[in-house]
């Protein structure tokens, strides 16, 4: 069994510090929540950000299985407003390529 952590800004505002600290603690993987309210300014929602996460995962020996849309609680798929649900679909369809 492997153990991971949702780091976000929990360990540090610096993504590399989050990888380093999670690795030192002994986790096998790390996930990052992204700011879905304004995903257009979120580093993790860009191809460059995804590449940075992959490179840091390799450097620190951590798997990065996914990013978490955990901050999408008020603007997500379960919203009562159909326009908000459609926006959630569009935002997620616009994610960077692997």
The parts where pLDDT drops under 50 for at least 5 residues are none
Estimated structural class: alpha/beta
Distance between the termini: 25 Å
What's the count of strands? 3
State the domain count: 1
**Helical residues, percent:** 25-40%
Radius of gyration, rounded? 14 Å
Helix tally equals 3
Strand % is 5-15%
Topology as a string of helices (H) and strands (E): EHEHEH
Largest sheet: 3 strands, parallel
Mean pLDDT: 78
Backbone shape = elongated
Order the strands across the largest sheet as they lie in space. Answer: 1-2-3
Q: How is this structure best described in words?
A:
This protein has helices at 15-25, 47-60, 82-93; strands spanning 4-6, 29-33, 67-68. It is of the alpha/beta class and 98 residues long. The chain has one domain (4-72). Helix 1 packs parallel to helix 2 (47-60). The longest helix has 14 residues, at 47-60. It is elongated and about 45 Å long. The two termini are 25 Å apart. The mean pLDDT is 78.
What are the salient characteristics of this protein?
98 residues; alpha/beta; 3 helices; 3 strands; 38% helix; elongated
Can you describe this structure in just a few lines?
The protein is an alpha/beta fold and 98 residues long. It is built from three helices and three strands; from the N terminus they run βαβαβα.
Describe the secondary structure blueprint for this structure.
Blueprint lengths: L3 E3 L8 H11 L3 E5 L13 H14 L6 E2 L13 H12 L5
Parallel strand pairs: 1-2, 2-3
């Amino acid at each position: 069994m492997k153990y991971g952590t949702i780091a976000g800004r929990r360990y540090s505002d610096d993504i590399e510090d989050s990888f380093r600290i999670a690795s030192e603690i002994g986790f096998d993987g790390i996930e990052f929540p992204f700011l879905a309210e304004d995903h257009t300014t979120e580093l993790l929602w860009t191809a460059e950000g995804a590449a940075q996460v992959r490179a840091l995962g390799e450097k620190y020996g951590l798997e990065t299985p996914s990013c978490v849309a955990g901050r999408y609680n008020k603007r997500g798929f379960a919203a009562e407003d159909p326009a908000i649900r459609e926006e959630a679909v569009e935002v997620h369809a616009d994610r960077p390529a692997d």
